[in-house]
Amino acid sequence: RAAIAARDLVKTYDGGGTSVTALDRVSATFATGTFTAIMGPSGSGKSTLMHCLAGLDAVTSGSVIIGDTELVGLADKQVTLLRRQRVGFVFQAFNLLPTLTAEQNIQLPLDIAGRRDPDPAWRDRVIDALGLRERLGHRPSQLSGGQQQRVACARALVTRPDVVFADEPTGNLDSRAGAEVLSLLRMAVQELGQTVVMVTHDAAAASYAERVVFLRDGRLAGELTDPTAESIL
Ligand code: ADP
Ligand code: ADP
Q1: What is residue 110's predicted lDDT score, i.e. its pLDDT?
Q2: Interface pTM (ipTM) of the complex?
Q3: Dist. CA 13–CA 58, nearest whole Å
């Protein structure tokens, strides 16, 4: 089963009398329980693809299916609701709320999604799997960068989303903390059965994925399965 599927995605940005084609008929599927990296040079459309897949950006034409729901054509409100319930995000800049503890940051998406009766067993599993049990009472400023990104991963996973989108999740981490976060994302896929789509320009980071999709000038330019850092370069 595909957690997410894009068909013939086209995205053009218009402005100042010029038009940029950021995505040019991109089709791709991301199977449930897989870890995919999206790579490509700067300006090749990686962020645009991620934003279109996540329903953050309206597509010009084509289709995006998350789980069993077609995003294109839904009202903005419905897309927001769907995103809250079915999509998690991990950002380069962590984006944790500074005044909240780790536990409160992790709880937030459950509250926002209006889960009156969240699955406490799942929440506990995520917290333990990411090694955060001892850090729940800490605020972001009391955590290292790697620990903050682990909290951000837990926050993304806690609603048990169909897909987690990670945008350069190791961009602000040293290589050791980065490797730890990547291992955790891989573990979320292998042991929790989550689907992760990660944008990165780092071959070492991408080698944690089981598949790498390459973009060039807004088009799919190939893919690798079971990549190694050497095979990507
Ligand atoms: P990447 O993430 O691979 O660096 P982007 O998706 O950010 O690539 O950009 C793809 C293309 O779309 C680039 O040519 C970029 O300049 C253009 N682009 C991205 N966002 C906008 C925008 N909001 N307005 C106009 N052009 C944009
Ligand atoms: P809305 O602003 O439409 O109400 P939400 O605030 O519910 O949407 O956002 C849903 C998720 O999308 C959140 O995790 C949020 O951090 C993320 N998000 C919102 N805008 C962007 C953006 N421009 N780029 C990346 N992620 C975003």
Answers
A1: 87
A2: 0.70
A3: 10
Taking the C-alpha atoms of residue 227 and residue 93, their distance in angstroms, rounded to an integer, is 26
- For residues 44 and 21, give the distance between their C-alpha atoms in angstroms, rounded to a whole number: 10
* DSSP string over 42-56: TTSSHHHHHHHHTTS
User: What residues does 31 pair with on adjacent strands?
Assistant: 2
**Burial per residue of 87-115, b for 16 or more beta-carbon CB atoms within 10 angstroms, e otherwise:** bbbbbbebebeeeebbbbbbbebbeebeb
CA of 17 to the centre of ligand 1 (A): 16
Atom of ligand 1 nearest to the CA of 23: 10
From 84, 93, 88, select the one nearest 149 (Cα to Cα): 93
- Would you place residue 84 in the very low, low, confident or very high pLDDT band (cuts 50, 70, 90)? confident
Do residues 96 and 41 make contact, with C-beta atoms less than 8 angstroms apart? no
Atom number, ligand 1, closest to the C-alpha of residue 50: 6
